[in-house]
Amino acid sequence: MSVLISQIMSRRVVTVEMDDRLEVAKEIFDNVPFNHLLVVDDNNLLQGVLSQRDLAHALSPNLGTAAEYVRDTETLQKRIHQVMSHDPVTTGPNMDLKTASRLILQHGIGCLPVLENNQIVGIVTWKDLLRSFSCD
Question: 46 φ, ψ to 5°?
Fold first, then answer.
């Protein structure tokens, strides 16, 4: 019997809205131990994924340093939809781990939002998958 995504996924998912500013995402990432935020629209439907790496690429590397200028802090005012990954690859809770692993590798992504009836029910990351395989 194969292990299913529903058995290892994180059910507590943090979402942000498309028009939230990057400063909101930075505040979240600065205070939590995970690397992906799911981006939703006004109907709470998944529209994209914002990774900590996406955020780092969008922000000035001078933020918080002696070399910081006003233009550097202005990068925090960009909207999340400007830098998120659109049309994310998703999975359902009944997908097996091997297939999910292939999806992550094939698309070069770090996570799979888990949807059921178009509603977000969880998220699984490459670390979750690796942890699961190493515990077999």
Answer: -65, 130
> Beta strands 15-17 and 36-40: pairing type?
parallel
Which H/E stretch holds residue 56? helix 52-58
What is the amino acid identity at position 52? Answer: Q
pTM: 0.91
Per-residue pLDDT tens over the stretch 24-77: 999 999 999 999 999 999 999 999 999 999 999 998 887 877 887 788 788 899
Is residue 126 helix, strand or coil? Answer: helix
88 with 3: CB under 8 angstroms?
Answer: no
In this structure, what are the phi and psi dihedrals at residue 8, rounded to the nearest 5 degrees? -125, -10
Burial class (CB in 10 A: 0-12, 13-18, 19+), 46: buried
Which residues have CB under 8 Å from 4's CB, separation 6+?
93, 94, 95, 96, 97
* Helical (H) or strand (E) element with 73: helix 70-74
User: Tens digit of pLDDT for each residue in 78-89?
Assistant: 999 999 999 999
User: Which runs of E-coded beta strand occur in the chain?
Assistant: 15-17, 36-40, 46-51, 85-86, 111-116, 119-125
